[in-house]
Amino acid sequence: EGEACVAALPPAPKRPRVLLPDSGECHAAERFDFISRFFAPGIGIPEDPVTGSAHCVLAPFWADKLQRPEGEYMQALQASPRGGLLRVRYLKRQDRVEIGGQAVVVLRGRMAV
């Protein structure tokens, strides 16, 4: 239910959309702590397949909402058409988020400094 519900939500181009547990809109499937999508059409990104930077904000938000102990891992799904599974944890005392998962190389290059 959770994946399909979030995947079916239309983009909200004027403001971010946050779904809270038991909001009545969508519920995360039991195997995920939270499910997200990321749209930024104003800067030319219709939908980002998997957004690490967004999860740096989502991890503390959901750790608090789900009352997770500091450092406990959460399973996240970004429900874009390509999709991505992430393992995130919020280290509050260090003001840090750790993110793990599969990566896709989208750009290779060299930089001369």
Mind explaining what this structure looks like?
There is one protein chain. By secondary structure, the chain is of the alpha+beta class. The protein is built from two helices and six strands. It has helices at 2-8, 52-65, and strands spanning 34-36, 38-40, 45-48, 73-78, 84-91, 96-101. The strands form two sheets. The protein has a four-stranded mixed sheet. The chain is globular.
Task: Please report the total strand number as a whole number.
Answer: 6
Mean pLDDT: 82
Class by helix and strand content? Answer: alpha+beta
Strand arrangement within the widest β-sheet reads 1-4-5-6
The amount of beta strand, in percent, is: 25-35%
Q: Ranges with pLDDT <50 over ≥5 residues?
A: none
What value does the Rg take, in angstroms? Answer: 15 Å
Shape: globular
Helix-strand pattern, N to C? HEEEHEEE
- Fraction of residues in helix: 10-25%
Distance separating the two termini: 49 Å
Largest sheet: 4 strands, mixed
